[in-house]
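Hi R.,

As promised, here are both runs. First protein below:
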Amino acid sequence: RTRTATATKTTTRTHTITKTTLTTTRTTMTTTTTTTSFYDWQSDPMLSRSHPLYQFTRKLTALRKSCPAFHKGSIQFRWVASEGSNDKMVAYSRIYQGVEIIVAFNSGGGGASTVNDLFLDHGNAGDRYRNAFDPSQTAEVTMKDSSLKLHFADGLNLGPGVPAIFVPENQ
């Protein structure tokens, strides 16, 4: 929607100075104001609410709002010893008030990557974690070599570009 407003003002004054008439004409500047509304993104066919990218973004937004560690927590990148796909697995933790969330994804384009354990800073042996995107994927906190680890009994296997966000089941 566009709205245009135009204003023009002309003033004419006549002065008589000793038998000479002086006419002064003054025209003010014309001002045009145009207001354009924002793009109507809801009608864009590329942003359909049924599109998988839209659905994924909604899930991420809901998850971020539901868990303070995502927007207030510190971040700790994790060393990952993955198998396959040239070690393309990336992982990091978000930690807030003793709650640790693990984010992992396969950044490679060469195939699936598998990891059996991820290091943790917080948690108790026996605590269970669940993937927010695939609740069938679970892991358990274990103590190995004097370190807390999130252990995946069947291994965490992620295809290229696939994320996993593991949150404690009690959260």
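And here is the second one, sequence first, then its structure tokens:
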Amino acid sequence: FFFKQKTAYEMQRGLVGSEMCIRDRVQGTLLEISKNNVQIKSLAAEYAKAALEKEEKKLNADMSEIISANDKARDVIQKGFEDMDEDIKRTTEDEPKEEKKEGDKDQVKEAKLDPPELRMKRQLKSSLIIKFQEILKQTNEAQAEYKKSEQNKIKRRLKMVKHNNTEQQ
């Protein structure tokens, strides 16, 4: 009988599994929002070309569905960030406290640093938050583009009805 020693990765796989699950859920949801942003831009282009009120209503309904899906996706991401916070908190509580020796400056310096696992979790959350912010910015820009498309269409219609109308009218 041979005994195979487990590697550090195999021993910590359970810890890594939950982190990967949260990360994958958040990344998948971010991808979903990005795809929705592409759809919003496409709807804006279609809206500008729509000739019938029926088409416009359909596009507005589609837009509402996408916005609703993005709102749900934001909730999923928020829950993912909360789960990450809990995981970081558990890791912080589980870390053994190092004793500081007055004579050893290196050990005192080491005790002030976060353990690698904790740094990795915090960095992962930070990078996902940055990505989330970028995608939310893109979402806002896409929705603003759609709204501008609506406004331009209204302006064109007003000009056809009355040539003397101002923008406020």
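A quick note on the second one: Residues 6-15, 107-112 have pLDDT under 50 and may be disordered. Let me know what you think.

Best,
J.
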